[in-house]
Design a protein that fits this description.
The protein has 204 residues and is α+β, with helices and mostly antiparallel strands. Helix content is 27%, strand content 32%. The relative contact order is 0.21.
Length: 204
């Protein structure tokens, strides 16, 4: 039995309006000097051009907290962990390689649609998810089948906001991260055994 093949339970949730997404993007660009390959959210091989939420304005951070309280907390019952924005582009980095997040829940929210291809890819099922602007993919990030990546874009610039929710204390998070690190190494050595070709999931 392939223990990685259990179907991943994810939800597509509308978090922000298009107008709110534009406000976040505007804030994002005002602070673009802080956008960088950022090891704070994972090892460098799984990083892209990222900006931590501490560089967002108070108004935007308050908006994010409000939406977490209204939309995500009722489902996850967790507290906010990391919050950061990611910018994918052809001239910088177009993707993020497969990885585990190591927290309890992750939500990857689409902030724009001016790009081609891209999306959140779960290689064990082949599911490729591209939610509409303002909607996010919420998934249980500490499961073996939650291994995922940001699929490469081929044109334009893709912006996402990542919100991670945690229910465990720091000791358990650390131990979980160690275990998933070794599993990740095994998976990367055996991609052809585990990976399914990407297939775009119809979210309508």
């Amino acid at each position: 039995m392939n223990i990685f093949k259990k179907p991943l339970n994810y939800k597509i949730i509308n978090i922000f309006s298009k107008e709110e997404c534009n406000l976040i993007l505007s804030d994002f660009e005002k602070n673009k000097n802080h956008i960088k390959i950022n090891k704070e959210h994972g090892v460098e091989r799984i990083s892209s051009y990222e900006i931590d939420s501490r560089y967002f304005s108070k108004h935007i951070n308050d908006l994010i907290k409000q939406k977490v309280k209204e939309k995500l907390h009722p489902i996850t019952k967790g507290k906010i962990g990391m919050v950061f924005g990611v910018r994918y582009s052809i001239d910088t980095k177009s993707h993020m390689t497969e990885h585990y997040d190591c927290n309890t829940y992750s939500c990857v929210i689409s902030l724009n649609n001016e790009f081609n291809d891209g999306g959140t890819y779960f290689p064990f099922s082949g599911d490729l998810l591209k939610p509409s602007v303002g909607s996010g993919v919420l998934f249980k990030a500490d499961k073996l089948n939650s291994y995922h990546s940001a699929h490469p874009i081929t044109e334009g610039v893709r912006y996402v906001l990542v919100i991670r929710m945690e229910k465990l204390n720091s000791i358990f998070v650390f131990l979980k991260a160690i275990c998933l690190h070794f599993i990740d190494k095994h998976i990367r050595k055996n991609k052809e055994k585990y990976y399914m070709k990407p297939k775009l999931v119809n979210l309508q």
